[in-house]
Amino acid sequence: MSFLLSAPMLAAIVYAAIAGTYLLVLPLIILFYFKARWYKTGSLERVFICFLAFFFFPGLLVLSPFFNFRPEARTI
Length: 76
Description:
Elements: H1 7-37, H2 43-55, H3 57-63
Subcellular location: Cellular thylakoid membrane; Membrane
EC number: 7.1.1.-
Subunit structure: NDH-1 can be composed of about 15 different subunits; different subcomplexes with different compositions have been identified which probably have different functions.
């Protein structure tokens, strides 16, 4: 039990949690925020969205192949 609470193991757990949050959790939230607000944004919100895309680019790059947010095809 003391091995799990040792300083190096605790540091590894904290780093893994921070990396998981940065690479998976926040980019997933941001992707759905993009989907919900992309065509309704004002200029300042568009700047904010571009900042989020720049700041969380590695996570967005990891998750983007698994999501398809293209508009639905029109029926003719």
